[in-house]
Write a structure and sequence with these properties.
single chain, 399 residues, mainly alpha, Na+/H+ antiporter like fold, 17 helices
Length: 399
């Protein structure tokens, strides 16, 4: 117990020091955490918290998703709902297909393994993207497009991953295209329905109290409860938590006085801001530790770098062609915004969680895990470090 407490306090101290140093040297905070985590692992420091699928999904994702949803204004989301919907659904499918084809063609991976990897790496990770945009102070429509797409494309990626995994393990029982579409609709609609029910129930309870501590506890129960219930029912926990956050933020809970006391509103926003900081600190430190422990030296450079190129190509073939659909409409996405959507499609904790859940019986199981960690490391460090330069170069940040 004492050892665990020391490790928790130590991680918080490291996160605080990295945050101060990152601000001082104008570097992305999350990149600093990954680098420091890798250094700690190489120095044999024991953090005591292994990065597992359950740890990421059940503990880390809910507060990050809920806090992000609290800060998405419904009116702006509704104004850009069509491009967000297209990018987060069709875009995810296109990206997964391109990556799977590239892995099978260029690296000779078996089709089942290529499909599973393409599905798990297709979703841009909300954890990494939200942290990156906070680091760089990006606001406005660009932030809404990137963050909203990353929050909503989990539904499609999760279904693709489940379908690919099921097909790889039992090809004779694979679903038809119609059954796959039905499963996709069920997982997405089920997650959003559970989120709406949890958000509505939380609103009713919040209406009956003005105690700010109870109100804060209520939001925590709603965030984690919606996620856990949805996952238990085999629908999208991410969409459930996002829907709960959107409802509680926009149905006059945080925007008005009817459901939440002024003190409660201020307390809740601060509470979730700290919760997101804490979750980000833990997950990016542990990503750095895990990356440093991966046996990259056992694989050739082609095996490690080719997937990075394929993933970037898949993202490009998603963003640029689909953006053309809105070229002459009120939803037009400028070329500058498309560049950020492409290069800002970071991969992170979500891809790692899915990779860690791949059964060891799948061909190239170890390669899938190692390559996923390699893509995530490149995404966070290289794309994360160059993103401020690109944002300034394209005029989204002052030079």
């Amino acid at each position: 117990m004492d050892g665990s407490l020391r490790q928790i306090v130590g991680m918080l101290a490291v996160a605080m020091i990295v945050a101060l140093a990152a601000r001082r040297f104008k570097l992305p905070y999350t990149v600093g955490l990954v680098i420091v985590g890798a250094v700690l692992a190489l120095s044999k420091a024991e953090l005591g918290f292994p990065l597992t699928h359950d740890f990421i999904f059940n503990l880390i994702l809910p507060p990050l998703l809920f806090e992000a949803a609290l800060n998405i204004p419904w009116l702006e989301l509704r104004r850009d709902n069509l491009p967000i919907l297209v990018l987060s659904t069709f875009g995810t499918i296109v990206s997964a297909g391109v990556v799977a084809s590239g892995m099978a063609w260029l690296l000779g991976w078996p089709t089942p393994s290529a499909l599973v990897f393409g599905a798990l790496i297709a979703a841009t990770d909300p954890v990494a993207i939200i942290a990156m945009f906070k680091d760089n102070g990006v606001k406005g429509r660009l932030r809404l497009l990137v963050e909203s797409e990353s929050l909503f494309n989990d539904g499609a990626a999760a279904v693709l991953f489940v379908m690919a995994l099921a097909w790889s393990q039992s090809a004779e029982h694979a679903q038809t295209s119609l059954e796959t579409i039905g499963t996709l609709a069920l997982i997405v609609a089920g997650g959003m329905t559970i989120g709406a029910i949890c958000g509505g129930a939380a609103l009713i309870v919040a209406w009956r109290t003005s105690e700010h501590l109870i109100e804060a506890a209520l939001t925590m129960v709603a965030a984690y409860g919606s996620f856990l219930v949805a996952e238990h029912m085999h629908v999208s926990g991410v969409l459930a938590t996002v829907t709960t956050g959107l409802i509680m933020a926009n149905f006059r809970l945080l925007r008005g006085k009817r459901f939440l006391s002024p003190r409660g509103r201020e307390f809740i926003l601060g509470f979730w801001d700290f919760a997101a900081f804490l979750a980000n600190s833990v997950v990016f430190l542990l990503i750095g530790v895990s990356v440093a422990m991966m046996p990259f030296q056992s694989y050739g450079m082609a095996v490690l770098l080719t997937p990075v190129v394929i993933v970037l190509l898949g993202r490009g073939l998603t963003v640029y062609p689909l953006s053309l659909l809105f070229l002459r409409s009120r939803w037009a996405i400028s070329l500058r915004e498309q560049h950020i959507l492409w290069w800002g499609g970071l991969r992170g904790a979500l891809a790692l969680a899915l990779a860690l859940s791949v059964p060891p019986t799948l061909p190239l199981h170890q390669e899938i895990v190692v390559v996923t960690f390699g893509v995530v490391a490149f995404s966070i460090v290289v794309q994360g470090l160059t993103m401020p330069f690109l944002l300034r170069r394209l005029g989204f940040l002052p030079k």
